[in-house]
Write the structure tokens for this entry.
Amino acid sequence: MREMDDLRKEFENVSAQNFNGNPAFCADGQCDSDEEVDLKDYPSYTEALYAKLIAPHVSGIYISRWDIKDIALAAGDSMAIHPRKRMFELLMKYATSKENMQAVLDALENHMEEKIAIYTEFMTSFPTSSEVFQPKIDKARKTMKLFPQIIEEYFE
């Protein structure tokens, strides 16, 4: 019986932390980190860009396999459907020159702007949804500000 009381107390503590605005953990990946990770901290630029661009908890936008295929097509590459990470790796093999990378980043920016427009429409139609979509829009804008740094870091 004592174990059940201990478990109940632990659950109440975690619940109190989560509901009082100080989450004990970040289940949905929405928590912001104070430290800024440098692109040089990754073993390869493909890994760095995958972590910064494709991870939805970082970029604010989920990019599906079909989205990667569309981005590649807009940038001038054609690819088959594979797992997301493999498709991104293939896209980065295409983007080995500054011009191709710029085309990929431009296509990605256009894709993100389309998603932001959808989020904005949701927020306009359903104002209470802004607490869900505004952080995603902010993350997407922050990610797009990273694009010139990507070109400078890897292609200059």
About this structure: Helices lie at 2-19, 45-54, 56-59, 65-75, 84-94, 98-125, 130-145, 147-155. The longest helix spans residues 98-125. Residues 21-37 have pLDDT under 50 and may be disordered. The chain is about 70% helix and 0% strand.
